[in-house]
Specification:
702 residues, alpha+beta, two-stranded antiparallel ribbon, 20 helices, elongated
């Protein structure tokens, strides 16, 4: 072959590129003429062995089984060799709109050659020289379907550079591409080159608890900040309403099992539930939990088994008489009266860091409920879906909204009306027209408007409209996975044939960056991952070969998942057929995790682990109720001994506390009339006069 026999050639788009190239070169070799191909890069072809570099001349051997460099070529052993045995493999078809990039090192035996070779980063479709088989150079007559190749090589680049050496980046040949709905994307970055952190993500408020330093550091005090006394009093009030009704159907109404409850006993009930979560006994029957031989003595120190079951049966969180009317407007009205104060307490005591995560939690429930969900990849499978936002660093739950599906009531608030210049009807119409995922996400992060934080969420939440709304109306950036059925994604970034394992492609707009990555993990061979980010504006590739957007997403996406895992490890949830009780158990688990975060971050010298913290919290809540039970004169002696052995530090009553002296002698109210004795001793509990024959003195251990 000679370089003088150049001829123009047009490769048709609708036919395989490699087959046309092979046929053309074979024809040229058969005619005795030659050609020169300028900068051909054909790495990463299907099942072919490739080396790095470039080929200036290509010829066909006598066997017609492989292409090798010509004898006159000055290229080294590192030059590209395309080996294509006819019966074993075929060269792949070149993509129409862009060509795969060459970046991986060849499977050469010489390691030094592989490390020293220049890495081809981007390949674009363009033919520089079109060759005529007759040896006459003619101007290009290619039509719109012609293919062309241009190879560009990039030297080593740092991590913060737009393109890193050794990492594949597929670049689109066009300057702009369209999504299926006509949304325009640019193939080159828009704006200045910078690292991923921009000015809009600068946070000027110190994250952490918003508590005074002088706040008492006891475990139960942090828990009471979240499950406040007002919430407990609401539960006690509505529970007593049911207790009064059910007590009328009981034969022995005077028994302590059926009496009204109070705040102290309700806190003791919560302590028993939390202790069951610590000991992983929430799935056991109450008979076994309160058993003298098998159960923990702390349970019996708080209350009896019958009282425990009766209180759980009577637990109510709202007015039962008006519940049906309220549920007609709000399906969550049964627990709304305690849910909203609890969420407000969580928001008031903690300010998150620069990254927050939005995701879902599933509270396992298989009973009758109008808004239960089926999520196959969750451990519970069926239950009540809670959408929440957590701090990515500390896993503190900041806000949560129950997913009610079609029963979700959307109301325009003051901020929505202000955005529509005071037009309430327009604001209501705009809220109603939003997708449910966008409406819920905006409602969750509304408190952090203008704070410069970044929101990370999964593919159920992500949409282009949400990313724009958070950036324009809330001053927040967004990073999240995108489902492939979103119509804003261009066709070029959806076809698996255009990507090899480990390759990435970027598209840019004024508001966000879209990236597609061909995952090379063993669990997802050749799976395309799509992510969108309004925080990143450059195609940065990390050392692990993944785009910076994916690396950042992986580091901040687990806030809610980790919080859910912490709740399940020490869960107090018991089996029930009432969904309101399931939500109440979920609130207790969330309050215990949040209180633990406050306990550690408020005072770093607190070193209790999660399990020990929840155990101390439960025992302190039970201890206050056990202290009051000691003053009950009808308490059995064995139970009194159990309380004192469980809580040795409880102060014992002295003989002076058992009886009091009267100023004058009075007749004993226990003695019969003929033999009624006069005494100065008085019962401490009821104040009645008691003679020496009718009172008992106990030591501090009894």
């Amino acid at each position: 072959m000679s370089d003088s026999d150049d001829m123009p050639v047009v490769f048709e788009e609708d036919k395989p590129f490699a087959r046309q190239l092979k046929r053309y070169v074979a024809q040229a070799a058969g005619d005795g003429s030659g050609t020169a191909v300028d900068e051909i890069v054909a790495n990463h072809l299907h099942d072919t062995e490739l080396s790095e570099g470039s080929v200036d001349e290509v010829q066909v051997s006598d066997s017609d089984d492989e292409y090798v460099p010509s004898a006159g070529d000055d290229s080294s052993d590192e030059d590209l060799v395309v080996s294509t045995p006819r019966k074993r493999r075929r060269l792949s078809q070149a993509p129409r709109k862009y060509v795969r990039c060459a970046s991986e090192s060849s499977r050469a035996s010489n390691a030094e050659t592989a490390t020293s070779a220049t890495l081809d980063i981007a390949v674009e479709v363009n033919i520089k020289k079109e060759l005529n088989p007759e040896g006459k150079s003619e101007p290009s007559s290619t039509n719109s379907g012609a293919l062309a190749i241009t190879s560009t090589t990039v030297e080593s680049a740092s991590i913060s550079s737009p393109v890193q050496a050794g990492t594949p980046v597929v670049r689109l040949a066009q300057r702009s591409v369209k999504g299926r709905n006509g949304y325009m994307w640019r193939t080159n970055p828009i704006g200045r080159q910078s690292v991923y952190r921009s000015v809009r993500n600068v946070v000027d408020v110190k994250p952490g608890p918003t508590l005074p330093v002088s706040f008492s550091a006891s475990p139960e005090n942090y828990f009471k900040l979240l499950m406040s006394d007002d919430i407990i009093e609401t539960i006690v009030q509505h529970t007593n309403d049911i207790l009064t009704i059910l007590r009328e159907n009981v034969r022995r109404k005077h028994q302590a099992t059926f009496q009204n409850t109070d705040v102290l006993e309700m806190q003791g009930l919560i302590g028993v539930l939390l202790l069951q979560g610590v000991k992983h006994e929430n799935h056991l029957a109450t008979v076994e939990i309160f058993d003298v031989e098998l159960g923990a003595p702390a349970y019996r120190a708080a209350m009896s088994e019958r009282r425990f079951c009766f209180l759980l049966r009577c637990l109510r969180f709202g007015n039962s008489q008006t519940c049906a009317l309220r549920e007609a407007e709000d399906k969550f009205a049964t627990v709304r009266e305690i849910w909203d104060p609890f969420i407000k307490n969580c928001q008031d005591v903690y300010w998150p860091g620069e990254h927050i995560t939005v995701d879902e939690q599933l509270l396992g429930f298989r009973g009758r409920c109008g808004f239960t969900m089926h999520i196959p990849n969750k451990p519970a499978k069926y239950g009540i879906k809670i959408i929440m936002v957590c701090d990515s660093r500390s896993k503190f739950m900041l806000n949560a909204i129950p997913y009610l599906g079609k029963y979700t009531k959307r109301v325009a608030d003051a901020d929505d009306v202000r955005q529509h210049e005071g037009d309430f009807d327009a604001a209501s119409a705009a809220v109603q027209s939003k997708p449910l995922a966008q409406y819920v996400t905006e409602k969750l992060v509304k408190r952090y408007r203008g704070s410069g934080k970044n929101v990370t969420a999964g593919n159920w939440f992500t949409s282009v409209a949400l990313v724009k709304s958070l950036r324009e109306n809330y001053g927040l950036t967004y990073v999240g996975a995108v489902r492939k059925n979103k119509r804003e994604i261009p066709y070029e970034m959806l076809d698996k044939k255009n990507f090899f394992l480990g390759q990435s492609a970027f598209a840019f707009s004024t508001d966000m960056t879209l990236v597609t990555f061909a995952s090379n993990t063993s669990k997802a061979q050749k799976k395309l991952l799509h992510l969108v980010s309004s925080m990143h504006d450059q195609p940065v590739i990390r050392d692990n070969g993944k785009p910076e957007i994916i690396t950042f997403y992986n580091s901040t996406k687990s806030g809610v998942d980790t919080f859910d895992q912490m709740c399940s490890l020490q869960s107090c949830s018991r089996m029930t057929n009432r969904w309101s009780i399931t939500v109440f158990y979920g609130m207790l688990n969330a309050a215990a995790v949040n209180a633990f975060v406050l306990y550690h971050e408020h005072k770093p010298q607190n070193t209790l682990k999660r399990r020990l913290y929840q155990k101390a919290l439960a025992m302190n809540m039970i201890k206050a109720l056990a202290q009051r039970r000691l003053f009950n004169s009808t308490l059995p002696r064995g139970l009194r001994f159990t309380i004192r052995s469980t809580f040795p530090d409880l102060t014992s009553t002295t003989p002076a506390e058992i009886t009091r002296m009267l100023p004058k002698r009075k007749s004993c109210h226990t003695c019969r009339s003929p033999r009624r004795k006069r005494t100065r001793y008085q019962c401490r509990k009821c104040g009645a006069p008691v003679c020496i024959n009718h009172f008992r003195v106990f030591c501090k251990d009894c």
